[in-house]
Amino acid sequence: MPARDAGAAGGVLTTVGQIGNAIGVAALGVGFFTALDTASAAGAPPLTAYADAFSCVLPWQIACYVVAAALMLLLPKHTDAPGGGPDASGGGPATVSDAGR
Questions:
Q1: Is the pLDDT of residue 88 over 80?
Q2: In a 3-state reduction of DSSP, which class is residue 91?
C-alpha cells in the first residue's frame, strides 16, 4: 500500500473493527437476554437465571475469539515495499551487526 494511503487504511481498519465489535456485542446480547428470559420464565431464581444465560453465551464468545485468532494466522507475514526491499529505503530493519557499518 502506498504511504499516502496509510491514513485512509488505518481509518477503514478502525471503522471495520468498531462495526465488528458492535455486531458481536449485539449478537451475544440477544443470546444472553433470550436465555435469561427463558430461564426466568421457567421460574429459576435470578442468580441461577443469570448463571444459565452466561453459560449459554460463553461458548459462543470463546468460539468467536478462536475464529478471529485463526483468521489472523492467515494474514500475510510481511509485504514488500516499492523498490523490492522490506522497506521504502530498501535497507531493511537495522540489526546489531549493522551497528559497526
A1: no
A2: coil
> How many other CB atoms are there within 10 angstroms of residue 15's CB atom?
10
Which residue in the block uniquely carries the three cell numbers 507475514? 77
Q: How confident is the model at residue 92 (pLDDT cuts 50, 70, 90)?
A: low
Q: In whole angstroms, what is the distance from residue 76 CA to residue 2 CA?
A: 17
Cβ atoms 49, 39 nearer than 8 A: yes
Question: Does the structure show a pLDDT above 90 at 45?
Answer: yes
Residue identified by cell 500475510 is: 76
Reading phi first (left if > 0) and then psi (alpha if -120 to 50, else beta), residue 93 is in beta
